[in-house]
Amino acid sequence: MMMNYKLIAGPMATLSHPAFRILLEKFGGCDEYFTEMINAGSLCTRGPFEKFYIDPQPCPQKIVWQLTGFDSSKLEQAAGILCELPGLGIDLNMGCSAPDVYKVGAGISWMIKPIEETKEMVRRVYSVIKNHNDGTGEKLRFSVKLRLGDDDFTDEKFFAFTDMLVSEGVELLTLHPRTKKEKLIRPPRYEYCERLCERYKNQGIKIYLNGNVKDEPSLKNAVTRCPNVSGVMIARACAQKPWIFSELKGNHGHVDMKEIAFDFIFDVEKFQPREFWKTRLQRFFTYYSMNFKFAHYAQTQFLNAKDNEDLKARLEEFFQKCPEEQFINY
């Protein structure tokens, strides 16, 4: 299927790491991989686990480093560290609305703070990227992932904010078109993605759409309503169906769910510290289980495993009891 837009794997905490990218690549992968949020303060102090957040495997050329934080100086310093890594560029997270993120001044808080404060932070990060590009001849991209704003957002405030970002050097905006508190059950306001495309069409600014794309009909709906977007970002759906990008390109195939599970466990053990194993595996198997007829039973079994060996034994038992669940065609 010919597409005039990119397909992008969105950033997901505890999921957007090398083991997950390896799994997606087995089905052909996608055009870009955004990493899970990298905490600027922790990166600057070189915390013991930070090397695992900045591992670009298995496809460094497709990586977008997503940076989060509440301190402008730390974000500036962290951007300098990330500029030395392979990848497409750096993305500032201004869209995460998880309470433990925005309450400390990160994520969507940057859309709610006085605009001059946010402008100064963006300017400092852009200066680091520009200086790096000027000095090396590279073309690392500067992007921002954002929402519509707080629940009292207006068109005037939203577009004034995006105008500020563009004026300060941001080249790409990924919009999840919901406000801070709007839940996933509310349809995303795709029209704002298309309005951004129209607003910046003569300035070379790219717009990515994010939200609710989970299969071919929902993709068609999104790009029909937003024909000028440069990319479609998918997160939760690719966690459930790592083959979704292949499916959306019009390919057909079959999936060995048992093989997927064991390969993923192997790669988590290879690329993640032991301290991360439990959270990474529980998050993945929450989505993985949704593919089965007996999804709740599968999820209960897998998430209650006491360790990786127990999880493997539970997987073996599940497929012995439910052999019809092992293979999925798409």
Can you give keywords for this protein?
330 residues; alpha/beta; 8-stranded parallel β-barrel; two-stranded antiparallel ribbon
Short description:
The chain has 330 residues and is α/β, with parallel strands linked by helices.
- Average of per-residue pLDDT values: 96
Low-confidence stretches: none
Sheet with the most strands, sense and barrel status:
8 strands, parallel, barrel
> Helix coverage percent of residues?
40-55%
Compressed to H and E, one letter per element, the order equals EHEEHHEHEHHHEHEHEHEHHEHHHHE
Describe this structure in words.
The structure is a single chain. By secondary structure, the protein is of the alpha/beta class. Helices cover 47% and strands 14% of the residues. It has 16 helices and eleven strands. The protein has helices spanning 18-25, 40-44, 50-53, 72-83, 99-102, 109-112, 115-136, 155-167, 191-199, 216-225, 236-240, 244-248, 257-271, 274-288, 295-303, 308-321; strands at residues 6-9, 32-34, 38-39, 63-68, 89-94, 141-146, 172-175, 206-210, 231-234, 254-256, 327-329. The strands form two sheets. It has an eight-stranded parallel barrel, surrounded by four helices. The protein has a two-stranded antiparallel sheet with strand order 10-11. Strand 6 (141-146), helix 8 and strand 7 (172-175) form a beta-alpha-beta unit. Helix 4 (72-83) runs parallel beside helix 7 and helix 15 (295-303) runs antiparallel to helix 16. The model has no long low-confidence stretch (mean pLDDT 96).
